[in-house]
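Title: Comparing notes on inverse folding

I've been comparing how different people in this forum approach sequence design from structure. To keep things fair, I'm posting one structure and asking everyone to reply with a full sequence. Here's the target:
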């Protein structure tokens, strides 16, 4: 289930990146960062399930930092 979600989110991120780089419109960059943060969260959950606690917690920390960046940037 998580694998399918990761693939869908990766395709969304790639699509947004291609759209932004070809049209030079960067308004959707926040959405791209948000979807990347969700992918990192899924990787963190998978790492925790595999017993790799340190790597899982690092991934969850990166998710929180990316989410914080999206929230702060959306209010500017």
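Reply #1:
Here's my take.
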């Amino acid at each position: 289930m998580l694998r399918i979600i990761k693939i869908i989110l990766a395709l969304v991120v790639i699509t947004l990146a291609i759209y932004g780089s070809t049209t030079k419109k960067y308004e959707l960059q926040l959405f791209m960062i948000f979807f990347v943060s969700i992918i990192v969260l899924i990787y963190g959950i998978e790492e925790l399930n595999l017993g790799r606690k340190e790597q899982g917690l690092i991934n969850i920390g990166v998710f929180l930092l990316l989410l914080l960046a999206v929230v702060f940037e959306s209010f500017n």
